[in-house]
UniProtKB/TrEMBL annotation:
InterPro entries: AminoTfrase-like_pln_mobile, MAIN-like, MULE_transposase_dom. Residues 57-274 form the Aminotransferase-like plant mobile domain. It comes from Centaurea solstitialis. This is Aminotransferase-like plant mobile domain-containing protein. One of its GO terms (biological process) is meristem maintenance. Residues 337-406 form the MULE transposase domain. It comes from the Eukaryota. It holds the Pfam family PMD.
Length: 418
């Protein structure tokens, strides 16, 4: 076949006037090898070693200061006999599921374990050089543990752009080792990490299959049991404990605004929102939900109220009260006692959820009515209780209830006693 000559272009050099300095020019007119690829540089190779080894979740949580008062209060309520916190509401504890949700650590797979071997100085120096690529001496160790201040000093040096894959893996091991010694398995001195953990990082594929979550939980339990004595120092994965408290005891944690918290801790709240919906979406469907209750439950009583200053197209929610028809009918066969109480809604729109309950002939709790309001004012309590007669009312003596009892005929003695 006759050789064909292809013009490399450009035909018009008014716009593309840098032709001679372009790499394509050397490909056609020079001696460059067209099969030679570019040397690609990237700075995230170390990061992906974290992910492959199974520590992405802990890495993404970032640094958060520990709440000393919260941790101390929890330790004071920890019982080593049951491995649970004894609270007024009952017993609670951190579970494997919590570890997986908070830190995204694996909770199945091979057990994280190792023999308490005796490390010679030569073995420690050789292992650190082989797995971390750093030169150590006797002063960098404390027994079988590597001092983390020295390790942090090494990591302050910048990794070369021409670093090999092995050098990147060594740097990743150093980062993970700091993570293990500083967040997951910190010791009482808070300045060293055991050499046995470094050995487990030799093979990243095997490391990613280890049950680090189980080991973290066991370490937390052990340190809580030690801290429950008269020790003044507690170690272990305390950040995990704090994240658990923030999630399970919401009053102790920061307010979630959808952006402030990082993965994977934020995934807990995102999962809740995915399952139950956001506050905005729930308030949007509230009218349809209440209408469905009315149509599917005959004799159900519903009272709506909107802000009188709201526009005709968009009604601003003020309060809603509802009592199921079957509950109203069943009240005729219950003891004439009503317990009225409310709780603050912690979501974006605040407000309060009010409930009224009684007891049936079998001494079981029977819910009577519910209300979602902005404040426990006299009007709201009147709407929620204006059908009550010859009753004994039990409450926390909130100002709104007292006003209703003193001003409304339906609440005055001898019809109702408070």
């Amino acid at each position: 076949m006759e050789n064909m000559t292809i013009h490399p272009g450009p035909f018009n050099k008014e716009l593309l006037f840098l032709e001679t300095s372009h790499r394509a020019y050397n490909m056609f007119y020079g001696d460059s090898n067209p099969e030679e690829t570019l040397d690609l540089r990237r700075g995230d190779r170390e990061l992906w070693k974290h992910i492959k080894a199974g520590f992405e979740g802990v890495f993404n949580c970032g640094f958060k200061p520990l709440d000393h008062s919260l941790i101390t209060a929890l330790v004071e309520r920890w019982r080593p006999e049951t491995h649970t916190f004894h609270l007024p509401i009952g017993e609670v504890t951190v579970t494997l599921q919590d570890v997986h949700l908070m830190w995204d650590l694996r909770i199945d797979g091979e057990v994280v374990t190792g023999c308490q071997r005796t490390w010679s100085l030569a073995e420690k120096i050789e292992t650190c050089y082989r797995l971390l690529g750093i030169e150590t001496e006797q002063g960098n160790f404390r027994g079988a543990q590597l001092k983390m201040p020295f390790l942090r000093t090494v990591l302050e040096t910048t990794l070369s752009d021409n670093a090999t894959n092995e050098q990147c893996m060594q740097r990743a091991r150093a980062y993970i080792l700091l993570l293990l010694g500083g967040s997951i398995f910190p010791d009482g001195a808070d300045n060293s990490v055991h050499m046995n953990l470094l050995v487990l990082l030799e093979d990243f594929d095997r490391c990613g299959g280890l049950s680090w979550g189980s080991a973290a939980l066991a370490c937390l339990y052990r340190n809580l049991c030690k801290g429950a004595t008269n020790d003044k120092i507690i170690a272990g994965p305390l950040m995990l404990l704090q994240l658990w408290a923030w999630s399970r005891i919401r009053a102790t944690g920061p307010k979630y605004d959808g952006h402030a918290l990082q993965r994977p801790f934020v995934c807990v709240f995102m999962a809740i929102e995915s399952i139950y919906g956001s506050w905005a979406s729930n308030f949007e469907v509230l009218p349809r939900y209440i209408h469905a209750l009315e149509t599917s439950n005959p004799n159900t009583v519903v009272v709506w109220s909107h802000d009188p200053n709201s526009s005709s197209n968009i009604k601003t929610f003020k309060y809603v009260f509802w009592a199921f028809g079957p509950a109203i009918e069943a009240f005729a066969y219950c003891i004439p006692v009503i317990c009225v109480d409310g709780t603050h809604l912690k979501g974006s729109y605040k407000g309060k959820l009010l409930t009224a309950v009684t007891k049936d002939a079998n001494n079981h709790i029977l819910p009577l009515a519910y209300a979602i309001v902005d404040e426990e004012t006299q009007l709201r309590w009147y709407v929620a209780n204006n059908n009550s007669r010859e009753l004994c009312v039990i409450s926390d003596r909130h100002k709104g209830i007292l006003n209703a009892m003193s001003t409304l005929d339906e609440w005055k003695e001898p019809i109702a006693y408070h």
